[in-house]
């Protein structure tokens, strides 16, 4: 579908649905601060939201789950069955909230954000970035709608240098073990499930950055662990990267691959957003380039933005094999597209063919 420019002054119209007046107002303030977005309405429950939608259809809905009169999951199912609109789930970090948020993804929601909280200036600024990016990614995920770019993003966009300096010389040390590094964002939860379910028990060790809020990555990893032959877990400090195991970076912490002799392990770090994210794919990929080199297999998957593209350049320079998910099977083609544009991708393949390509490279 070709790009179709929207009117110069046209903005995406957002509907906020949350029973908390404080959360509603915070979300309204955050959305209104972005010149690409505007709030078309705010509702305390799905019945009021439905009435507003009859007057005007929103481009994206931000939806709470725990609400009176009708819960968000029920409302989401009604939206998807009657008039599909991109939905971003705004959820608490409580265990039930995590589980319901993942169920919402199954029902058709595109993104998960955690409920905004007031705090330090840096926390507020990061919340703005995460929430507005999630809304835009949700809009772009709707294939039935006009494709649009968002040039007016805030200037805060650090590189992997903020966490790990780039080495002056590329290490060519080799071991007998391959490491698979995967980066994904919007649409990645389902895509990762398909890839990891296809991995055999002796698959090479896998390290993953999926853009997802803090605490939700643990629930996501636990769910995948119950579905897959390999072990899947949220990474903890110094976890070993071994055959038959996938480690998912915890939300809100950067994950780096490290090496001690022939042993690979992960290190978790705090720090600023890199490429607008924490965890960042660029940070993971830089560390993989440094410590795995020619034994690395990089995968860049569905998601908005360019996180991971620069990291793939470094992986390619270190001798790694790089794979990008193709446009047709992506929910949002941003991240793979940016890596492909840099000329550092060896293969562009459909989601369903990525597992076979990984295993083929791992045999080399």
Structure characterization notes:
This protein is α/β, with parallel strands linked by helices and 364 residues long. It has helices at residues 21-32, 46-55, 72-82, 95-107, 121-141, 188-197, 216-227, 281-291, 309-317, 334-341, 354-363; strands at 12-17, 37-43, 60-64, 87-91, 111-114, 179-184, 205-210, 231-234, 245-248, 254-260, 263-269, 296-300, 321-325, 347-349. It has 2 domains: 12-141, Response regulator (Rossmann fold, 3-Layer(aba) Sandwich), CATH 3.40.50.2300; 162-363, 3-Layer(aba) Sandwich (Rossmann fold). The chain has a 7-stranded parallel β-sheet, with helices on both faces. Helix 8 runs parallel beside helix 9 (309-317). The two termini are 38 Å apart.
Order of strands across the main sheet: 8-9-7-6-12-13-14
CATH fold descriptor of the largest domain: Rossmann fold
Q: What string, H for helix and E for strand, traces the elements in order?
A: EHEHEHEHEHEHEHEEEEHEHEHEH
Helix and strand content put the structural class at: alpha/beta
Radius of gyration: 20 Å
Specify the CATH homologous superfamily of the largest domain: Methylesterase CheB, C-terminal domain
Mean pLDDT: 89
Q: Cα distance, first to last residue?
A: 38 Å
At a glance:
This protein is α/β, with parallel strands linked by helices and 364 residues long.
Q: Which short descriptors sum up this protein?
A:
364 residues, alpha/beta, Rossmann fold, seven-stranded parallel sheet, 11 helices, 14 strands, 35% helix, globular, disordered N terminus
């Amino acid at each position: 579908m070709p790009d179709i420019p929207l009117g110069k002054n046209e903005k995406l119209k957002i509907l906020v649905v949350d029973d908390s007046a404080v959360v509603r107002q915070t979300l309204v303030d955050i959305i209104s601060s972005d010149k690409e977005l505007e709030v078309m309405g705010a509702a305390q429950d799905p019945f009021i939201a439905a009435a507003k939608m009859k007057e005007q259809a929103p481009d994206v809905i931000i939806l709470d789950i725990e609400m009176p009169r009708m819960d968000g999951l029920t409302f989401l199912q009604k939206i998807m069955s009657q008039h599909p609109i991109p939905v971003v789930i705004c959820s608490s970090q409580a265990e039930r909230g995590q589980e319901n948020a993942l169920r919402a993804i199954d029902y058709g929601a595109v993104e998960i954000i955690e409920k905004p909280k007031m705090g330090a200036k840096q926390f507020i600024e990061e919340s703005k970035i995460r929430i507005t990016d999630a809304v835009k990614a949700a809009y772009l995920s709707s294939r039935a709608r006009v494709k649009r770019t968002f040039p007016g993003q805030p200037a805060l966009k650090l590189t992997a240098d903020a966490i790990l300096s780039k080495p002056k010389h590329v290490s060519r040390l080799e071991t007998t073990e391959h490491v698979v590094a995967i980066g994904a964002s919007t649409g990645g939860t389902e895509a990762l499930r398909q890839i990891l379910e296809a991995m055999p028990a002796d698959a090479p060790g896998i390290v993953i950055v999926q853009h997802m809020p803090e605490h939700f990555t643990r629930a996501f990893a636990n769910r995948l662990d119950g579905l897959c032959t390999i072990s899947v877990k949220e990474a903890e400090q110094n976890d070993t990267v071994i055959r038959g195991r996938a480690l998912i970076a915890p939300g809100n912490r950067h994950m780096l691959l490290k090496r001690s002799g022939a042993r690979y392990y992960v290190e978790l770090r705090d720090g600023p957003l890199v490429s607008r994210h924490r965890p960042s794919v660029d940070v993971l990929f830089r560390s993989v380039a440094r410590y795995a080199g020619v034994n690395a297999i990089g995968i860049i998957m569905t998601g908005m933005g360019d996180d991971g593209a620069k990291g793939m350049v470094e992986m390619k320079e270190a001798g790694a094999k790089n794979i990008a998910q193709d446009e047709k099977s992506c929910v949002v083609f941003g991240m793979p597209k940016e890596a492909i544009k840099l000329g550092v991708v060896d293969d562009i393949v459909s989601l369903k063919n990525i597992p076979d390509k990984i295993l083929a490279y791992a045999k080399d």
